[in-house]
Amino acid sequence: MPNSQPVAPVDSSLAAEAHHEHPTYLRHHFHSVAQQADTANFAMWLFLVTEVMFFGGLFTAYLVYRNWYFPAFVAGSHQLNVVWGTLNTVVLILSSFTMAMGVWCAETRRKNGLVLCLALTFILGLGFLGIKSIEYSEKIEKHHVPGIQYSLSSFLDPASDKEATAAGDKPLSLDMARHTEVYFSLYFAMTGMHALHMIVGIGVLAYMIFRARSGAYTSGHVTFVENFGLYWHFVDIIWIYLFALLYLISRH
Amino acid sequence: MSASTLVSLPDSSAVGIPEDNYISREYGLKSWLLTQDHKRIAVLYMISLVFFFLIGGIMAGLIRLELLTPQSDLMSSDTYNKVFTMHGVIMVFLFLVPSVPATLGNFLIPMMIGAKDMALPKINLLSWYLYIFGGILVLYTLVSGGVDTGWTFTTPLSTHYLNTKVMSTCMAVFIAGFSSIFTGLNFLVTIHKMRAPGMTWFRLPLFVWANYAAAVQMVLATPVVAIALVLLMLERTIGIGVFDPTKGGDPLLFQHLFWFYSHPAVYIMILPGMGVISEVISTYSRKRVFGYTAVAYSSVAIAVFGFFVWAHHMFIMGISNYAVLVFSLLTMLVAVPSAIKIFNWAFTLYKGSITFEAPMLYAFGFMGLFTIGGMTGVFLGSAGTDIHLTETYFIVAHFHFVMVGGMLMAFLAGIHFWWPKITGRMYPEKLSQMAAVVTFIGFNLTFFPQFILGMLGMPRRYASYPPEFQVLNVFSTAGATILGIGYLIPVLYLLWSLKYGEVAGDNPWQATGLEWQTQSPPLTENFIEPPIMDHEAYDYAWLDRKNRERQKGEVSNAE
Amino acid sequence: MSEHTHTVVGPRIYVTILLALLLGTALTVWASFIDLGFWNPIIALAIASTKALLVLLYFMHVKYSTNLTKLAVVGAIFMFTVLVSLTLADYISRAWGSW
Fold first, then answer.
1. Contact B364, B412 (CB under 8 A)
2. Alpha-carbon distance A88 to nearest alpha carbon in chain B (angstroms)
3. Contacts from A108-116 at CB under 8 Å and sequence distance 24+?
4. Can you give the residue ranges of every domain in chain B?
5. What is the mean pLDDT of residues A86-106?
């Protein structure tokens, strides 16, 4: 083994390890809790980087087709309910707030506060999904789901459609009306992928609430809550963009 | 700069394989299948990779067999389409992409940086299971009828016009993609957070730099092909029509998303191989790599610039002329850092004490063949030439030169170089050198004629061809046979060496690098005490000083 | 590099950001109902990006994070921009015809 004189300064936490004072959650390949926490944090950030690129493909597709078929995108967007969309945005922003507060509770060792915040985040997440499912069922009813008896009547004849009339839409040409199916393909792909991420997040929240109640995160080891928080906030950011791009196209 | 004199060591091989090592620490299937030891995971990958390479190789054999004659007499065109698709899918996603990173990278990176393990051992194991899951789906596809889209899954063929096993293959690639993402993620976290004291960025072996650069690409590029495949699968199943022309979708959008990954993928494949070459050339010239900083920065430059050029795979597909212009220009740029590396390796060799062990022979093969492959890549990057050469055998020859003549040779160089460290055994030297030469000859005979065939106009992905192309095709198939033998021989003697090979000792090549400062095979925890890095990379003078100290220590102990 | 200086971000900051985000939401919905021509999407994206930035900096603690974290965020945004802009460059320039 190398016997050379050390020239680099030795981390004080190395000395701590030498005296075998390490908590049970410190894995053997790390020399300190700080290194382990730092590593986990960076790993989560890199995972979020992959998620940016994953959703990035969808946003690219969106931008391409919005550029090509703007009238179809306008008509499609008018079919979405701005009230539900805004409500969902508010719900998610609130859930980001409760999640951030949850992290603060974990850091300041407030067990009950943490459980409350996680529970609120959980409920708000479920609320988001509930609103989403209402919206989806409306789309299904109106035959605006691509590939499943997709109906062009709302776009060829706006007078027959409540939302289209309310938005003051003009009839589209047959060609452009067909392109609304691309808009809805992207709508379902993007919000569906987002909802999938929400479901995973809500599942993990349920697990965390259970663990938080036994004090797992309020005794100095906040890594899991902190890094989950990053994931949750990221899902919120994706929605912030989805809302602006899908719901708010030319609403005047 | 000048080579330092080699100090002979006491014969540590007389002691035998160390009793406690990562292989002997624990026995039983469960201890391997549930391991979190990066070295065991690397070995698991090695075994699975060889298995899939064999299957992909059989596909290649079938292709070359069919192409012996101008007619599609061995198999129908549809079957031929399936064979070359499976060959491509297996070789790209199940062999080349994981090859060096998952085997050598996993094994060596923690040791090279002085760490006990990867930063995320469980994610590492998950990576392997995802790879296996993807592989099983590919095998399922193989036995249940195959897929014939080509490994590029071009739409709308893959979305609307085929009823072959497109879904299972896309699923397989999607899952294998996550294996790659997690490997890359693990590398980045490990290299940033787990370096030993004194191990600054510019003291890292260039192998680490190369894998770091590839890992950056793995993390940024792979998710894009993942979403492309998800959208493809959605379009095939539930009718979400993002690429469907009847709804106004553009099939070319799939290609943009697919190639956004698949071009960086070729750098994901080659960069770790280049890392191996840096290590091998330095060791067998006993000289530090010339222009260390340039090579390190070039690795990063290749990783970054590699993201800007993807549409050079789409010049004839219908992108705008302006896009053709822009991407052609950008493609010219990306060749520069690769060339810088070749020059630096050549200058490393200059005035070095060169020896010709098998890894070095493979490295020489790499330098020549990658140069040819790379230069033909530049010919193809020029849009004017590409219009005539694309979809011909020129392309096939180009990418086989860089991937097989380049990457696979580098992989073999690396396996041979680090075999003593991984297994504690040496392989037979003369036989290994002979196999390297046979591989080189077989390779050239197989693929050089394909450049000519491409220029003469033979299209790729066709089971039949005009009879005037037969002679060159026969040469190519003959070469493939020799190449196959060249690959088989190492498998045999490497397996043989596990039981009968000479005991290697800690550092049989007298290489620098922290991994050579441990026993062979290494302990599960790699190092007894955390090492401290106090010298530059490739410091052969330091190595000689250490050996002299050790010799003096043993002499005085003996007295 | 261990986090010796682990800043604990407190409720006051979080409440401020929450209010800013809710305000931004109201603003963007209101702006979408006014005809501002080609400025509409630009404003919508600008507000969305500001909201995203606030979430990043304060909820996700990027403001208090290491340079490495900031590099990762910038890298992701950069590569996303490359994907979008080079792809769109093709699509937009198709309409320009052949030279």
1. no
2. 24
3. A108/C8, A109/A218, A109/A219, A109/A220, A110/A218, A111/A212, A111/A213, A111/A215, A111/A218, A114/A212, A114/A217, A114/A218, A114/A225, A115/A209, A115/A212, A115/A213
4. 34-558
5. 96
Calpha distance C12→C7 (Å, rounded): 14
CB-CB under 8 Å, A39 with B193: yes
**CA atoms of B80 and B412, how far apart (whole Å):** 29
Question: What is d(CA B470, CA B452) in angstroms, rounded to the nearest whole number?
Answer: 12
By three-state DSSP, how is residue B523 classified? strand
At position B138, the amino acid (one-letter code) is: V
Complex ipTM more than 0.90, yes or no: yes
Q: What is the pLDDT of residue A21?
A: 60
Nearest to A236 by CA among C18, C31, C64: C18
The DSSP letter of residue B13 is G
Specify the pLDDT at position A15. Answer: 47
pLDDT above 70 for B3: no
CATH class of the domain at A40-247? mainly alpha
Please, what is the angle between helix B77-89 and helix B121-143, to 10°? Answer: 170
The C-alpha of B299 sits at a distance from chain C's nearest C-alpha, in angstroms, of 17
Q: Which of residues 51-70 of C touch A (CB under 8 A)?
A: 51-52, 55-56, 58-60, 66, 68-69
The 3-state secondary structure of C40-97, one letter per residue? HHHHHHHHHHHHHHHHHHHHCCHHHCCHHHHHHHHHHHHHHHHHHHHHHHHHHHHCCC
> Residue B148: its pLDDT value, please?
94
Compute, in degrees rounded to 10, the torsion defined by CA atoms B506, B512, B514, B516: -10
The helix-helix angle for B409-423 and B358-381 (nearest 10°) equals: 150
**pLDDT at residue B5 in the model:** 41
Nearest to A61 among B121, B242, B546 (CB): B242
Nearest CA in chain C to A231: C60
Q: For the domain B34-558, what is the CATH superfamily, name and number?
A: Cytochrome c oxidase-like, subunit I domain (1.20.210.10)
Q: Which of 296-315 (B) contact C at CB < 8 A?
A: 307-308, 310-311
Q: Can you tell me whether residue B127 is helix, strand or coil?
A: helix
Q: Kindly state the helix (H) or strand (E) to which residue B284 belongs, with its residue range.
A: helix B251-285
Are C90 and B321 inside 8 Å of each other by CB?
A: no
Query: Does residue B7 surpass a pLDDT of 70?
Result: no
**Weakest mean pLDDT among A7-11, A148-152, B391-395:** A7-11
Indicate the SS3 state at residue B526: strand
> Hey, which residues 64-93 in chain C have their CB within 8 Å of chain B?
68, 75-76, 79, 82-83, 86-87, 89-91, 93
C79 interaction partners in chain B (CB closer than 8 Å)? 220, 307
Paired tokens of C40: 């509409």
Express each pLDDT in B12-33 by its tens digit: 445 788 989 999 999 999 999 9
Is B220 in contact with C76 (Cβ distance < 8 A)? yes
Residue C82 burial by CB count (10 A; 0-12/13-18/19+): exposed, middle or buried? middle
For the segment B294-323, the average pLDDT, to the nearest whole number, is 96
Q: Is the pLDDT confidence value at B128 over 80? A: yes
Is A32 at the interface with chain C, CB within 8 A? yes
CA nearest to A49 within chain B: B220
> What is the arithmetic mean of pLDDT over A41-50?
97
Interface membership of B256 toward C (CB under 8 Å): yes
In whole angstroms, how far apart are CA B110 and each of A33, B193, B210, B546? 19, 11, 14, 22
Neighbours of chain B (3+ CB pairs under 8 A): A, C
Model confidence pTM above 0.80: yes
Residues in B touching C82 (Cβ below 8 Å):
307-308
Distance of CA C49 to the CA centre of its chain: 3
Closest by CA position to B2, among listed B288, B390, B202: B288
Residue spans per domain, chain A: 40-247
